[in-house]
Write a structure and sequence with these properties.
Shape: globular
Number of helices: 18
CATH topology of the largest domain: TIM Barrel
Strand order of the largest sheet: 3-4-5-6-8-10-11-12
CATH architecture of the largest domain: Alpha-Beta Barrel
Strand content: 5-15%
Distance between the termini: 39 Å
Largest sheet: 8 strands, parallel, barrel
Radius of gyration: 25 Å
Length: 504
């Protein structure tokens, strides 16, 4: 149950490419030192490729500076049809209700690779700049990617973003070097945030991709791996705090088992709880982040055969078992919900009922594919039902709606990223407006629900709910009753028709 990766798409070739680049850099430094020179290692690159490393470089030259709202009748693919940031719904603006966030890993680092195929995308920020034969060195490339991220957010009018430590900064040869790389990129991101309202919705640590995490991180049978995971989480928390992040998220891709007969479930679950407690203490006590919830993101499997944070109910039970329910909330991902055999609205409603909803990863899966496809949500009915639960709970600030979704492997144009986010934002905005109708206390749907539970507002019902009735008393009433209990109609068909009339 421990953290999430920089990039769900980061293939091993990234690791080896970065390692190769670091090796080349080391050799260049050695040659310079041996020659007694003091010029910067990348001086020639900077001289030759100055235009490509220009901080004013534009990656979406054909798109407007800010995507406009043009209304439902618009045919402009680079305009919002439903999302109007300043429009008020139930006394609050759409922007306040929805609190959209862009995911760095899927938006900037998605190269189109999958378990069966090589990368298909060559984004302009990863390609060689004009006048250069090769992409910039790793750290300059990381800064270039960050500039692309901020340009994307500005165009969408989104102030929140999510990142993973290994997403944004390249690995080094040692943990110290890796940490130094992260520090440099975080400071660069802080500079880009300066003077804006942009900040992370949440940050997290990558605890599943590297080989030493193959048996888990917090749940690893190796204490050395547990120590490395703890160090990595601490550093990722430092980065999140430095950038003003509102939350810190954990996703345990390897926190589970592959082979049950050799797995000590009790020990692994206890170790996970200890890990979370240490993270809680550092976040609240050392970093002074009380009031900024820690999040756990449930998922049943993939990449592990069985993950301990299976769904909302399982994860909530774990947190309560180890007395962590006051420190953590749940970040619900729609595609993870379907992998667990639930609808997204079920998981959201369950989290709301338990008072543990902390955020939403807005995406969807392909019903014909049995794995996590991370598509943008465009289903208006599901969006309306999901937003209904969020509206009834009065939103989830400081949580938000993160687009943990990626363009398809076959979508290779840079504007496809804009189309995808525009579509996702429009779907959620339309869902919000429909949700406002569905949750109307005087509306037909709420009327059907009230009628189903109307007997509980009786004197007897209130007495039972207050815990003032006994089994003996209820037995006496049952024996005195005339005939069988009265059971009303569920009126599912009527409710379905009401929803259909609203949603369309």
């Amino acid at each position: 149950m421990v953290a999430r990766m920089c990039t769900k798409n980061d293939s091993p070739e990234y690791y080896f490419r970065d390692l190769l680049a670091a090796t080349v850099q080391f050799l260049l430094v050695a040659l310079i030192l041996l020659g007694g020179k003091t010029v910067p290692v990348y001086a020639s690159v900077s001289d030759t490729c100055a235009s490509g490393l220009d901080p004013t470089e534009v990656f979406w030259p054909d798109a407007p500076a800010v995507i406009p709202f043009k209304g439902a009748d618009s045919q402009d693919p680079l305009a919002f049809r439903h999302y109007n940031a300043s429009e008020e719904v139930l006394g609050r603006t759409m922007k306040d209700w929805l609190r959209f966030s862009v995911a760095f890993w899927h938006s900037i680092r998605n190269d189109g690779s999958d378990p069966f195929g090589f990368p298909t995308k060559r984004w302009p920020w990863d390609a060689a700049p004009a006048g250069c034969e090769d992409p910039p060195p790793p750290m300059e490339l990381a800064k270039r990617r960050m500039r692309a991220m901020f340009e994307l957010m500005r165009k969408l009018g989104v102030d929140l973003w999510c990142f993973h430590d290994r997403d944004i900064a390249p690995r080094g040869d040692t943990l110290e070097e890796t940490n130094a790389n992260l520090d440099e990129i975080v400071e660069y991101a802080a500079q880009l945030q300066e003077g804006t309202e942009i900040r992370p919705l949440w940050g997290t640590a990558q605890l599943f991709a590297e080989p030493h995490y193959m048996h888990g991180a917090a749940t690893s049978p190796s204490v050395d791996v547990f120590v490395r995971a703890a160090a990595q989480v601490k550093k990722a928390m430092d980065a999140t705090r430095r950038l003003g992040g509102e939350n810190f998220n954990f996703w345990g891709g390897r926190e589970g088992y592959a082979f049950l007969p050799t797995t000590d479930l009790k020990t692994e679950r206890e170790h996970a709880a200890m890990f979370f407690k240490m993270a809680r203490d550092y976040w609240v006590k050392d970093l002074k982040q009380k009031g900024k919830p820690l999040l756990i993101e449930p998922k049943p499997q993939e990449p592990s055969k069985h993950q301990y944070d299976w769904d909302v109910g399982t994860t909530a039970g774990f947190l309560r078992e180890f007395h962590l329910e006051k420190d953590f909330r749940l970040n619900v991902e729609c595609n993870h919900a379907t992998l667990a055999g639930h609808s997204c609205s079920h998981e959201i409603e369950t989290a709301v009922a338990m008072d543990m909803l902390g955020g939403l990863d807005a995406n969807t899966g392909d019903p014909q594919v049995g794995w996590d496809t991370d598509q943008f949500m465009t289903d208006g009915r599901e969006a309306a039902l999901v937003l209904s639960a969020i509206v009834r709970s009065n939103g989830f600030a400081p949580g938000g709606i993160n687009f943990d979704a990626k363009t398809r492997r076959e979508s290779t144009d840079v504007n496809d990223l804009l189309y995808a986010h525009i579509g996702g934002m429009d779907a959620m905005a339309k869902g919000l407006k429909l949700a406002a109708k569905l949750v109307d206390p005087d509306g037909a749907l709420e009327g059907v629900k009230r009628e189903r539970y109307s007997s509980w507002v009786s004197e007897l019902g209130v007495k039972i709910e207050k815990g003032k009735a006994t089994l003996k008393e209820l037995e006496k009433l049952a024996l005195e009753a005339d005939g069988e209990p009265v059971v009303g109609s569920g009126k599912q068909e009527l409710a379905d028709n009401i929803i259909a009339a609203v949603v369309g």
